[in-house]
Amino acid sequence: QVQLVESGGGPVQAGGSLRLSCAASGSFVSIDAMGWYRQAPGKQRDLVASITIGGGTNYADPVKGRFTISRDNAKNTVYLQMNSLKPEDTAVYYCNADVYVRVYRRLELWGEGTLVTVSS
Questions:
Q1: What is the DSSP string of 39-88?
Q2: Residues 35, 87, 8, 4: is their CA dihedral positive or negative?
C-alpha cells in the first residue's frame, strides 16, 4: 500500500550535478528516518546519506562535502543534491524510509531505484 518513488536520475558529465527526489505515497501514520543508498555494478548496496525526522544528517565519507540530503515532511519527500559528481558515483540509487503504518508497526521500505551514470 505504501510506496517510495524516486526520480531525477540520469546521465551526467563528471563535475556536474543532479538532484534526486523520493516521494512516499499511500496509507501510513508517519515517516521516521529516510535515506539514500547506492549500489554499483558488482558491489554491495551502501548507505549514501540519511536524515532523521528532525533534520539530523549522516553521510558516507566518499560523498561528504559534495552531496546534501534534505527532506520536506509536508510533502513526504526526501531529496539528494549531488554536486561535483565523479565516475565512481555511478550506481543505482535507492530511496529508503522507515514508515509507520500503525503507531507501533514499522516497515522498512525501498524504492525501485534510479540510475545515475557519471561519465568521465
A1: E-TTS-EEEEEEE-TT--EEE-GGGTTTEEEEEEGGGTEEEEEE-S--GG
A2: negative
15-51 per-position pLDDT tens digit: 999 999 999 999 999 999 999 999 998 999 999 999 9
Q: Decide if 67 contacts 82 (C-beta within 8 A).
A: yes
Q: What's the first-to-final CA gap in the chain, in angstroms? A: 40
What the block records as the C-alpha cell of 100 is 509507520
Cell of 25: 505515497
Helix, strand, coil percentages in the chain from 3-state DSSP, rounded to 5: 10, 60, 30
Determine the residue type at 21.
S
Give the pLDDT of residue 76. 95
DSSP label of 89: G
